[in-house]
Amino acid sequence: MKARTQQAGAATVVLVVLVADLVTKAWALRALADGRQLELLGGLVPLTLAFNTGAAFGLTIGDDPRWIFIPVTLLAVAFLVMLLVQARPGDELRSLASGLVLAGALGNLYDRVRWDRGVVDFIGPIDLGFMLWPIFNVADMAITVGAILLAIAFWREEDGRDRTPEGAEDPAQPVRSSGAAGDS
Q1: pLDDT tens for residues 149-171?
Q2: Of 86, 101, 80, residue with least CA distance to 143
């Protein structure tokens, strides 16, 4: 029962983040058209419409990379769904992280499938003083946060897998006889 609740929570994360991504991109296409710019937080966060045909941070691969990104994203989506299905009951962090990355991947995939203009980005660029952070979107934020959380979840799984509490039996090991009376 706990696994089903956990999967339902992950599905809710996917739905909420995906809707937020699609709604904000639609808003950006209208509000920031024709080169208009807006600012949030007293100018700390500029909003600028851009189309990213490349990968993260605008890295490009060939002339029309969407035909590379679409199948790669579909493989990633399949992998993330597998991670969600295989998450152990009680592993909410893995479910949350997988849901965030899945939602972000689906949001950006939608843009790549619907047109050749690229992924709609609109938050930024942000001047960090020592560098200019590229323009991004809600899907990118979900992928980044989800990937960090997923790395933490995997690290915790790996860390916990190698330890059995003292005095507890390791379920992966066969039960050994203590040599007491009645044992052969």
Answers
A1: 999 999 998 887 544 444 445 44
A2: 101
Query: Regarding beta strands 132-133 and 126-127, do their DSSP bridges make them parallel or antiparallel, or are they unpaired?
Result: antiparallel
Which residues partner with 123 through β-bridges?
Answer: 47, 136
Q: Report how far apart, in Å, the C-alpha atoms of 154 and of each of 20, 26, 36, 97, 98 are.
A: 27, 35, 42, 10, 11
Phi, psi of 177 (to 5 degrees): -70, 145
Q: List active site positions.
A: 121, 140
The pair of structure tokens assigned to 94 is: 């893995």
Ramachandran angles phi, psi of 60, nearest 5°: -110, 150
Q: What is the distance between the alpha carbons of residues 147 and 100, in angstroms, rounded to a whole number?
A: 8
For tokens 């323009």, the residue is 135
Q: What is the pLDDT of residues 122-153, one digit of tens each?
A: 999 998 899 998 999 999 999 999 999 999 99
What CA–CA distances, in Å, run from 100 to 21, 58, 175? 11, 21, 41
3 state SS of 38: strand
What span, in angstroms and rounded, lies between the C-alpha atoms of 96 and 167? 32
Contact (CB, 8 A) for 99 and 77:
no
